[in-house]
């Protein structure tokens, strides 16, 4: 049971930590440095770098979300059911679904818009429908990640108050 709980907490810590580091450090630093060092193309390059980074992180999120669901279920089947099991399982499953939707639907459409534009989205006129759609998807992606950060914080709190 301890090994399952360890895997659960490790997956939760990796997922939450990754989201916080990406949003609070990697994104702003990447854009700041590249826009300063390469004024003409820095924003585009930063978008490419961070877009690739976040796309790869989605696979980490899927693995962590899957680990949360599997370990919670295993703990319930093998030992005393974890406190708040149903709530925690539903929240973990919802977080995994949010990550899957964000990674496949949102990021997929953003990549498609970028490809079809033939030029960096940031170079399109502000009123261009493709740029507006891209910005809307970017905002949605950010909000969905914040939903998962909140969910992870709730799960972390729940575990912090539990006894072994």
What attributes does this structure have?
164 residues, mainly alpha, 4 helices, 0% strand
Word description of this protein:
- With 164 residues, the chain is mostly helical.
- The chain has one domain (2-161).
- Helices cover 85% and strands 0% of the residues.
- It is built from four helices and no strands.
- It has helices spanning 2-37, 42-78, 85-117, 129-161.
- Helix 1 (2-37) packs antiparallel against helix 2 (42-78), helix 1 (2-37) packs antiparallel against helix 4 (129-161) and helix 2 packs antiparallel against helix 3 (85-117).
- The longest helix has 37 residues, at 42-78.
- The radius of gyration is 19 Å and the shape is elongated.
- The N and C termini lie close together (9 Å).
- The mean pLDDT is 95.
Question: In a nutshell, what does this entry contain?
Answer:
With 164 residues, the chain is mostly helical. It is built from 4 helices and no strands.
Which bin fits the share of residues in helices?
A: over 70%
Principal-axis shape equals elongated
How many runs of DSSP E, i.e. beta strands? 0
When the domains are counted, the total is 1
The proportion of strand residues reads under 5%
The oligomeric state is: single chain
Give me the number of helical elements: 4
Structure class: mainly alpha
| Order of SSEs | HHHH
Q: How far is it from the N-terminal to the C-terminal residue, by CA?
A: 9 Å
Could you describe the largest sheet, including whether it forms a barrel? none
Could you tell me the mean pLDDT?
95
What is the radius of gyration? 19 Å
Q: Report the uncertain regions.
A: none
């Amino acid at each position: 049971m301890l090994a399952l709980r360890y895997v659960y907490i490790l997956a939760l810590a990796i997922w939450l930590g990754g989201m916080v580091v990406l949003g609070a450090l990697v994104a702003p630093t990447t854009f700041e440095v590249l826009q300063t060092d390469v004024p003409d193309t820095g924003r585009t390059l930063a978008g490419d770098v961070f877009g690739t980074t976040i796309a790869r992180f989605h696979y980490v999120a899927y693995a962590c979300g899957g680990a949360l669901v599997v370990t919670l279920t295993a703990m319930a089947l093998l030992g005393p059911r974890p406190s708040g099991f149903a709530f925690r399982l539903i929240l973990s499953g919802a977080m995994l679904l949010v990550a899957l939707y964000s990674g496949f639907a949102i990021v997929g459409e953003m990549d498609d818009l970028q490809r079809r534009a033939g030029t960096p989205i940031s170079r399109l006129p502000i009123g261009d429908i493709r740029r507006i759609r891209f910005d809307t998807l970017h905002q949605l992606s950010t909000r969905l990640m914040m939903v998962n950060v909140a969910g992870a914080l709730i799960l972390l709190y729940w575990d912090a108050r539990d006894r072994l």
